[in-house]
Design brief:
alpha/beta; about 60% helix; single chain; Rossmann fold; globular
């Protein structure tokens, strides 16, 4: 098994592309889903967020108001760093659990949807391949304004707060261009899936595990022989 990091930019269509891979039966670890999960009431991150940001970030039912919290950290980089320090360790734990589950199921590769893959670079060294979902700037702004009901000025501010997509494209192993028709994007994703499935990059880890298991079995056999009583 090998790891494939999937990333993009705000309103580039990354989540929609991820759905294509899921429909194809790929093993997918969605960091956004995990991030929503670990801040639910009853989880350690939820309590720490309330302690750090106050009860104004809560909805009436006790859930975190992600929009209020998002607006707060967007305007204050130090607050964004604080939130990351609270949530990222919990997110990484869940990512490891899900990835190991897919390994046991025998998947050849696992896609990890990591929005800040190139920005933080903390997980980049573990990725065998990287995929960037790209769209041109005008398309990105138009989609963001329509989706979030933002003015052009606000949309541009959100886009500029991220690493430019053109920079991510230069660092990626693969690029899926989502600037045009959706059917074209889907075709690109299917072809890439076929390429990744045919790759033999999953073999080293699988062979390493088999060798390790064989070694353990041999050791147990020798121990068992040593513990058996000697013949009279």
């Amino acid at each position: 098994m090998f790891l494939v990091g999937l990333t993009g930019g705000i309103a580039s269509g990354k989540s929609s592309v991820l759905q294509i891979f899921q429909q194809l039966g790929c093993a997918v670890v969605d960091v956004d889903v995990i991030a929503r999960h670990v801040i639910q009431p009853g989880y350690p991150a939820h309590q720490r967020i309330v302690e750090a940001f106050g009860t104004e970030v809560l909805l009436e039912n006790g859930d975190i108001n992600r929009k209020v919290l998002g607006d707060l950290i967007f305007k204050q980089p130090d607050q964004r760093q604080l939130l990351n320090a609270i949530t990222h360790p919990e997110i990484r734990k869940e990512m490891i659990k899900e990835t190991f589950k897919y390994f046991l199921q025998g998947h050849r590769y696992v896609i990890l949807d990591i929005p800040l893959l190139f920005e933080t670079r903390k997980l980049l060294k573990y990725m065998k391949r990287t995929i960037v979902v790209y769209c041109n700037r005008d398309t990105q702004l138009a989609r963001l304004m329509k989706r979030n009901g933002l003015s052009l000025e606000d949309a541009e501010a959100r886009v500029q707060a991220q690493l430019p997509l053109k920079d991510k494209v230069r660092m990626a192993s693969h690029v899926l261009d989502n600037s045009g028709e959706w059917s074209n994007t889907r075709r690109q994703a299917i072809l890439l899936h076929i390429q990744l499935e045919r790759s033999l990059e999953y073999l080293p880890l699988r062979l390493g595990v088999l060798v390790g298991l064989a070694g353990i079995a041999s050791l147990l056999y020798l121990l068992a022989r040593c513990l058996l009583p000697s013949p009279p």
